[in-house]
Amino acid sequence: MSTKIVTARVGVPDSFLLSTYLDHGGYSALRKALSMTPEEVHAEVMASGMLGRGGAGFEAGRKWSMLKQDLIRYLVVNGDESEPSTFKDHLLVENDPHQLVEGTLITAYAIGATRAFIYLRGEFALGLERVQTAINEAYAYGAIGANIFGSGFSIDLVLQPGAGAYICGEETALIESLEGKRGFPRIKPPYFPAVIGLYGAPTIVNNVETMSNVPWIITNGGKAFAALGKGRSTGTRLFALSGDVMNPGNYELEMTSKTFRELIYDPELGGGLKDGRSVKAVIPGGVSAPWIGPDNLDLPLGQDEVAQAGSMLGSGSIIVLDDHSCAVRAVWRITKFFSRESCGQCTPCREGSGWIEKIMHRIELGSGTESDLDLLLDVCDNIAPGLTWPPQQTTICVLGPSIPSSVVSGIKMFRDEFMVHIKEEGCPFVH
Amino acid sequence: MSFFSSENLEKAQVLIGLYPEKRSALIPLCHLAQGQHGHLSNEAMEQIAEMLDIQPAEVLGTASFYDMLHTEEVGKYLVGVCTNVACMLGGGIELLEHASDVLGVPIGGTTEDGMFTLEEVECVAHCDKAPCAQVNYRYFGPLANGDFDQLVDDLRNDRLSESVPPHGVLSQVFRDAPAMVPLEIIHRERRAMDDEKKARLAALNKDAGGNQ
User: Which of B186, B187, B195 to mutate against chain A (most A CBs within 10 Å)?
Assistant: First the structure.
């Protein structure tokens, strides 16, 4: 059995309560961290090599090193999990909120934050209740607030609910939202909130899963974490498997220890596909990622391995399409998502997403033409010139350049299927 | 006249006190208002503006960006059926059509009795239970058509009132922590931490220099 870090207590009765957490050694990592210097805590996280678990995959310890050392500086935890088919943070906030709180406090100490915020997706009603309960319990226990465990270190932790906007997962949009504004991503530069972030002060923004790994790293040491996985992909990762598999769910696996094929077919994991069907395509890392075909199923689940195959591990979500599912319909639905969630600041994204969605819809419904395929690629090219991966950018944030991925993948991999929709004037699949 | 009840007024003051800048409380106050009234009324936005020292138009301008903030009345139960990819593969689009038939309203519509408003929603991170739906942000899935009918029946007959409060009530757990640590104390602590760190680094450099 592989090591479980962030899901070690998932399935334990009342795993979300302080009493359960304490029975499992909870908050001993915070006590240990407070007995170390902030540099020592930071050094452990550096040694772990942990890549951020939000999607971009930037090394967490290095991000902390970039924090401008002004007196006022903030820590913001990004829990605005909205990338389609990503449901790992949802699991963590509902099942182990104290682990998240403890990781957040340790990080706040390491970077010397003056206040910490957990921004949680508004739709997570139960998650909001569980995290707020955990925060309340942790205050009463003396783990948050004034002079934590008598260490001389004080900090407040605030839970902020979102209100329904995918774009708020983009870190500068999240900061705007936390400031009480529309979730408009900020113009770069400055590239990093670590220089100018919340209220203009240096700010570290880290993902829920990233924070949830921190207590284990402090307890067991950065080296133990780095010993798991391979290359830049250290530790474990929570893979959210969905779509046409027998057992969709979250699976915490040592990085690179399994391939896509093993995750999908292992009876202990995905359990294979229905009725002996076969894999048609896999969308790794969220719907912003280029698709991979059945020929790539033996790729290990690692950051660089998936990147080298021309896609990304991203948020760790994996959607499986079987040979009874329509690729055109899937592309259409993904482009509809982007069209609905574009914040509207940049013309290529706002207008382009709408046009792409309309063209995709008419192809799926049977009124497309062959020239629509070139038209689609042309509109995509206006959003992300050259249609390269990683994409070029004509917009403030990466939402726009994420739109072409599925369209280009779909046309490249399933051109025949597009043509059948066009020639037979409708979708050939039963649904 | 205050829009907020006296109990919610107290909560609102606590929320405002959590932030170095008041305006950060805008979204939490909008949720509080919806919890009291089911949607975000003009009166609520006016009072929120006053409490945050901004214009009511700024509250509306912000609130209108967010899907969960409703400036018009919605049903007691806001039913959101997900049709994003994972749910689509599990039959989410067909479930949404069924929901529209069963409730007798188009997408975005509210039933005549004011019980249900139907929405098509984007991924709600419940993909291992596809196709899924949320009712006032409480999750249900996987839902076959019959399961959906049962869910509607249960809601209509108040069998789920414990687990699904009326629309607007989001988290039912409020912050009960003691008052915030004054920022002067935090700033004093951080200054000392930074000075100690500098001293440690200087000592390290000195040692390194001495060894050369």
Answer: B186
The secondary structure of residue B22, as a DSSP letter, is G
**Cα(B86)–Cα(A282) distance, rounded to whole angstroms?**
12
pLDDT at A95 over 70: yes
Task: Give the nearest chain A residue to B176 (CA atoms).
Answer: A136
**Cα torsion through A135, A139, A144, A148, rounded to 10:** -160
CB < 8 Å to B24, chain A: 160, 178-180
Q: Quote the mean pLDDT of chain B.
A: 96
Q: Which residues in A lie closer than 8 A to residue B74 (C-beta atoms)?
A: none
- Contact between chains at A125 and B191 (C-beta distance less than 8 A): no
DSSP secondary structure of A340-370: HH--S-SHHHHHHHHHHHHHHHHHHHT---T
- At A226 the pLDDT is 98
A137 by DSSP, 3-state: which?
A: helix
Nearest to B191 among A39, A71, A144 (CB): A71
What are the helix (H) ranges across A124-255? 125-141, 171-178, 208-220, 222-226
Residue B122 at interface with chain A, using a CB cutoff of 8 Å: yes
Query: What pLDDT is attached to residue A298?
Result: 98
What pLDDT is attached to residue B93?
A: 98
> With an 8 Å Cβ cutoff, are A87 and B128 in contact?
yes
* Tens digit of each residue's pLDDT (9 = 90 or more) over A103-149: 999 999 999 999 999 999 999 999 999 999 999 999 999 999 999 99
Predicted local confidence at residue B210, as pLDDT? 58
If residue B81 lies in a helix (H) or strand (E), which one and from where to where? strand B77-82
Nearest residue on chain A to B54, alpha-carbon basis:
A180
- Please say whether the beta carbons of A9 and A98 come within 8 A: no
**And the tokens for B168?**
């607007």
pLDDT at B178: 86
Tell me whether residues A330 and B88 touch, CB distance under 8 A. yes
Q: Say whether residue B173 is in contact with chain A using an 8 A CB cutoff.
A: yes
What is the dihedral angle through the alpha carbons of B146, B148, B153, B159, rounded to the nearest 10 degrees?
120
Least CB-CB distance to B27: which of A125, A135, A177? A177
Give the residue-averaged pLDDT of A371-393.
96
Residues of A in contact with B178 (CB under 8 A): 139, 145
Is the pLDDT at A285 greater than 80, yes or no? yes
Query: For residue A56, how many C-alpha atoms fall within 13 Å in the half-sphere facing its CB?
Result: 15
Q: Chunked in runs of 10, what are the mean pLDDT values of chain B (212 residues)?
A: 96 97 98 98 98 98 98 97 98 98 98 98 97 98 98 97 96 93 97 96 84 52
- Tokens describing residue A421: 């929709």
Instruction: Determine how many CB atoms are found less than 10 A away from the CB of residue B18.
Output: 20
